[in-house]
Amino acid sequence: MHAPPDVGCVGCKRAYHYTQAQQTTVLLSCRLGGTLLIRRMEPAGGESPARAASGAPTRGSENDALLGWGSGGNASNTMIPSTVGRGRGKGSSKLKGGSGDRGGTTAYTEGPLGSGARSRMASYDSATTLGLPRRVSSRVRLESWEFPGWGSHFTMNPPPGLALSNPSKDNGGHEKLGEWYATAISGNDILSSVLYVTGLVTGFAGWLSPVCLLMVAGILYLYRFIYGEAISALPMNGGAYNVLINTTSKPVASFAACLAVISYIATGVVSAATAVSYLQTLIPAAGLMTCTIGLLFFFACLMTMGISESAGVALGMFVVHVFTLTAVCVLSACYAFYNVTILKENLQQDFPAVTVGGTVVEGTWVTAILFGVSSAMLGVSGFESSSQFVEEQAKGVFVKTLRNMQWGVAVFNPAICLLSLCVLPMEEIIEYKHSMLAIMAKRVGYWAGGCLGLPTPGLDLGEIFAFWVSLDAFVVLSGAVLTAYVGISGLLARMAKDRCLPQFMLRKNKWRGTYHYTIFGFFLLATSQVIILQGDITTLSGVYTFSFLGVMTLFSVGTILLKFKRPSLPREVTVSYATTLVGITCVITAFVGNMLSKPEVVSWFLIYFMAVGFVVVLVFLRVRLLKILLKFAHPVCCDGVTSSIKDQLHELQDEPFVFFCKQPDTYVINKAILYVRDNEHTNRLIVVHCSNDVEGATIKTLSKHIEMFDTMYPKIKISLLTVTGSFSPGTIDWLSQELGVLKNKFFITCLDSVFKYKIQELGGVRVITH
């Protein structure tokens, strides 16, 4: 008998093609409308047409074999769906036959789970008419749109030699960032802090300010290894978000991401506004708000040109800034050697009084250390930025960038703070804290000019040196704006890939391959803050401090969880629990110190956090909100409204997720299913097992387990995909193309040190269980 033609549904636009050895009645249901489509075919082997049309079992077959999990009979059917999924746009998931992208042939078959001898005729069963009552208790009540259908057992044969390929070795034509390029991008941010942190710390700690900055350098030394272990184990963009999403749940990771977003917004606006403030010392007519917005727009355009070009600009800024700081230190040291009077007078000063919770408290060495260290933590902001673009860095570069930044802070911040006490009176340091370095340069430059006998009317070396320092401050603070763009681009792209943000943010510029929506979205958000707050740097600096300290705390928590829950994951750096706990304690203490000394900033921090968090939570809970809306709209709205809501639900939930399972371990499989159910917007899960023995006992056992789990979780369609071959980066890349699923939707168990490949070679897969 000839095979029947394609059977399609006008509601969901699906088409199925059937080939079969026996004639029977084909039952097909549409997931959208719940419509039952019946195709009647001629009976075989003497079966009467009436019996076939009635849906009664034909000879050698059972209805269960057609509609659910069947094991009896001798019918041998193969179903090849021309489209699996909704087929809407690029996000549709496809199982394709024919020639693969690598020149091989993809062989694809589908059969029922739990049985290798019989295939199912219906891929999607109606919850109310077909498969659901046969598999679960009659007490279970599901709407048709809630039931995605029962899973299947697929087999795919990849092209020969696929397991030997490693797509991660190909950088797509883009050269990875080296040590100094990556250091420059992050270093411009962290070393720009010396331009304002000295005066700020001196206002709280007095002559103990160099000690406070040394203590902060010690804390940063601890975090150098904390960050190093976390990112070397999970070298993917996202920083604290990346660490937490691979060790905890998506809501916890999204909480950390909100803090990071606030941190980058604040650092971009603060750096741009401060840079313009230094520019005003050179060009008094420069408008603060106009020039700040213009500077933000300039770096937005620069970022669209690509990170490599931006890194080259950042390296030039970094070299000039280090040279400038070195020149200031050398001239100030010479000045201090011949003029010790100012230092002696500063050492005689009492500790500054501090405001604690609105009450003025007399300064002591305790208040000097506590609030001095708390305020000095702003001077190490930017230390986490390197973790936001680690995927663009060459192998082994990230750990080196942490080392370089830590030593830069440990050398320049305390040294310049100490030398400022030797050059300027303490009152002058506090009064001109936002431009202290320029005042200091003018003083030592004038002294150096006098020593050299330069004619003051014609050549004032102090004015020239102050001009140089102010220009350098403008340039390096502009580099900190670049750092904010680089960091936010990596973070938001990672969040969008994980479906925490709208998917349009992943669209790339065809000209340079950059995330232009993310870049200019950040520009618009930063510009709105400049306009709303009228460039209030003080308030934004406080918000920046709270968000940055929150990110550091969550990074430490993520490292502890990584050590406890993912101990077998290979890493380049290891740190003890004691070191991590000491780091957390120091950062929390600094957080409390800032809350006590700046209580008015807490409200602004909460406002920004709630605003950013609302957007993330809204995207994260959109499926639940649509389901609630559908429940209320169904009795009162027309069918068009409810159908539109169902369309949105199917579009969001029809994206499959993939879990690679090595052994038929029910405990691990159940943990993976629970993770997907609780963290992802999907009702489809494909469990993939790679093996050369597709008919072995492991496959049969795994098929029965997946059948059981598919019955236990009727709201998730759980299928088993057997791939002929071994697990490798090439297999992941091929499956991603064949299934139409992004690699970040591929989940694995925790790797160990003996595994052949590193996690960064797997293309961004997520670790969800041990």
How is this structure best summarized?
The protein has 770 residues and is of the alpha/beta class. The protein has 25 helices and 15 strands.
List its salient traits.
single chain, 770 residues, alpha/beta, Amino acid/polyamine transporter I, 8-stranded mixed β-sheet, 3-stranded antiparallel β-sheet, 25 helices, disordered N terminus
Report on the architecture of this protein:
- This protein has 770 residues and is an alpha/beta fold.
- It has a domain at 173-618: Up-down Bundle (Amino acid/polyamine transporter I), CATH 1.20.1740.10.
- It is 54% helix and 9% strand.
- It contains 25 helices and 15 strands.
- It has helices at residues 49-53, 63-67, 131-135, 179-191, 197-205, 209-233, 240-245, 250-282, 288-304, 307-338, 341-347, 365-376, 397-423, 426-431, 436-452, 461-497, 516-532, 537-565, 577-597, 599-620, 622-636, 639-653, 666-679, 697-712, 729-739, and strands spanning 7-8, 15-19, 26-29, 36-39, 78-81, 98-99, 105-111, 153-157, 354-356, 359-361, 657-660, 684-691, 717-724, 746-749, 766-769.
- α5 runs antiparallel to α12 and α6 (209-233) packs across α19.
- The longest helix is centred in the middle third of the chain and has 37 residues, at 461-497.
Q: How does the helix and strand content classify structurally?
A: alpha/beta
The CATH topology of the domain at 173-618 is Amino acid/polyamine transporter I
**Kindly state the mean pLDDT as a whole number?**
76
The largest pleated sheet is described as: 8 strands, mixed
> Considering DSSP H and I runs of 4 or more, what fraction of the residues is helical?
40-55%
CATH architecture of the domain at 173-618: Up-down Bundle
Strand order of the largest sheet: 6-7-8-13-12-11-14-15
Report strand %: 5-15%
The parts where pLDDT drops under 50 for at least 5 residues are 1-108, 115-131
